Amino acid sequence: MLLDLPEQEVWQEIALYLPPKDVLSFVSIHRNINNCLSSSSSFWAQLLVRDRDYEETSEGESTSVVAADVREAFLLQSFMSSLAFVKWLPVSRDMQQRQFPVKAREGHNSCVLNGPDGFKSLVITGGFSDDQGVTVITLKKGLEAHNSNWGWTRLTPRFSDEPTFVYGASLTPLPPALSAEMEKDRFMRLRPGLLKKNVAKAVRFGGFEGGGYSGETNEVWVLTIVDYDYEDDSLDQFAVWEKMETQGTRPKARAYHSATLIHDRYLVIIGGMTHLGSCIEESILDIQTWKWIDLSCEGEPRGRHGHSVVWDKRRDRLVMFGGGSGTDLLRTGADCNEVWELKMKGINAMHRNPARSQSCSDNDETMWEWSKIHKNTLSPRNNSDSVNSGDDSDSDSSREGNNHADSSLSPSESLCLGRCHNAMKISPDAVLLMFGGGRPSTNGMLGYDLANDAFLRPNVKGPLPVPRFTGVASFLETEGYILVHGGFNDATGGAVLDMNVLDLAPSLRRHFTGFPLDEDRQSQEAVSDEAARNGQYGANPNPRQMSALQRLLLAQLYEAQMNGL
I need a labelling partner for 64 at 20 to 30 A (CA). Which of 230, 259, 324, 335 fits? Predict the structure, then answer.
């Protein structure tokens, strides 16, 4: 069959079946192969689509572009996917203290949105702070992001209702096409010379509205960022928060949950914390109709908060990492390092014909099913939650990473799956986990191979940041960077004023100029296994067992936090 094809198509078909690390070796193995493929932009574009898990080429990435540019994008994606080598770039502390509008905070939100033509917008907002502003970092889209200045604007948003203080909420970007369709006839400006309007949206769910982990909510809000581009090269930008009225049965109010968008339409909410404890309750919100969909699951894990969930599209499942139990982030409960998968029966049929099926309920064809991949090796048996008291820690039903030798984790590595860690799916088969853990928190990182259900250990260079948890981390996919901001450090007992950029492809030797860097920054000490063991993974004595002085100091701390708001 291959012999009947033209020579270039033969080589191309062979190369498309090779893993990323072998493609370049194949292209270089013979002059004829190199001549056929190295200058073919369509060939490199097909590899990009394959390795980014896209259904089609992204907007603005035409297959007629220069082959060298598409090949460089493929190289970037290949280095990111391997997770072999990453490097920390510490952003200037002087710039953060004197200029950057987002100060030290934790429990806040960030996400990446489409900006005006050729740009992306990285949004930071909310958290345990009295700052209701929305800070938008603007950067060039694609391979030249590192060569240009990343500017920012602090916006004072408009509100459809009274603004709410909230922390521990989720903020999920909406698909660009849906954002544009929702607002095609709104936010029009009468000022002459308007060339283009760009609208980007993100949906916020849940969070705590009161101090001391109280006042959990199940409200749904949408953040809209609008950019105007005028003929005189001037730009205008503003932000709007709007409270959405949803249909159907609203889910349990909660904070520090996960919110994962699948099929560009269904927002899956899992787990979270309430004032009574941690829950696991799963819910689905259709973001096109703003209707809650009934969902039933079997084999549920125990309640948890501060976990993460990614959509493993190639294996048609959701994968959940770690988290913790308890009614707060430091004093009660314990972290866990288990990994679960959730098989989504019926979701594909519902996506194909949403009008005919608005539930995933109690029957064998549509009930979603949990199963454990890696068992928990941290939490003691007596550390169950009041909301869901099931204990999985000693179960033998987990499949240990398909018998990979690296499936077991050391105490310090386990912190990367602890409560309020950061997790990003950086390729179809790779997840990066960093920071996390209540006491102590960590500055470490781990990778996870979705294809083999095994952990990866990247080689980390550059000065390590301050250990933290409940900070934000935003993945810039086509640029190959992760921006990290804020969080809480248990050693200092306060929020972190610290911003860092993680280069996911340092082998390309790119010179980053987006932010000024502290070239001489000293590395923070890595969290050791001994420190992780002594910290008991966030489990502190029960408040009832504290001395009167300890209870008094704790009450004073909460009062000070509330007065600071």
Answer: 230
d(CA 321, CA 337) in angstroms, rounded, equals 7
Q: How far apart are CA 475 and CA 464, in angstroms?
A: 18
- Give the Cβ contact number of residue 459 at 10 Å: 10
AA letter at 213: Y
The span from the CA of 230 to the CA of 446, in Å, is 45
Question: What are the tens digits of pLDDT across the range 447-500?
Answer: 999 999 999 999 999 999 999 999 999 999 999 999 999 999 988 889 999 899
Asked whether residue 187 carries a pLDDT value surpassing 70, the answer given is no
d(CA 160, CA 130): 19
The amino acid sitting at 353 is N
Q: How far is CA 235 from the centre of its chain?
A: 29
Closest CA to 492 of 297, 330, 306, 250: 330
Cα–Cα distance between 476 and 120 in angstroms, integer? 9
- The partner residues of 244 in beta bridges, in order of sequence, read 220
Token pair belonging to 235: 């730009």
Residue with the two structure tokens 């699951």: 297
Would you say 318 and 307 are in contact if contact means Cβ atoms under 8 Å apart? Answer: no
d(CA 17, CA 9): 13
At 494, give phi and psi (nearest 5°): -150, 170
> Which residue type is seen at 195?
L
DSSP class of 379:
S
What the block records as the tokens of 33 is 């192969």
Give the separation between CA 457 and CA 452, rounded to whole angstroms: 14
pTM of the model as a whole: 0.86
Q: Supply the DSSP symbol for 417.
A: G
Given a cut of 70, whether residue 527 has pLDDT beyond it is yes
Predicted local distance difference test score (pLDDT) of residue 54:
56
Closest CA to 435 of 446, 427, 443: 443
pLDDT digits (tens, 9 = 90+) for 147-176: 899 999 999 998 877 767 899 999 999 998
The span from the CA of 467 to the CA of 469, in Å, is 7
Q: What is the pLDDT of residue 179?
A: 77
Torsion angle of C-alpha atoms 413, 528, 485, 475, degrees rounded to 10: -30
Nearest of 423, 434, 406 to residue 526 by alpha carbon: 434
Q: How far apart are CA 273 and CA 334, in angstroms?
A: 13
Nearest Cα neighbor of 439 from 470, 408, 407 is: 470
Amino acid occupying residue 476: L
Residues 6+ apart with CB under 8 A from 22: none
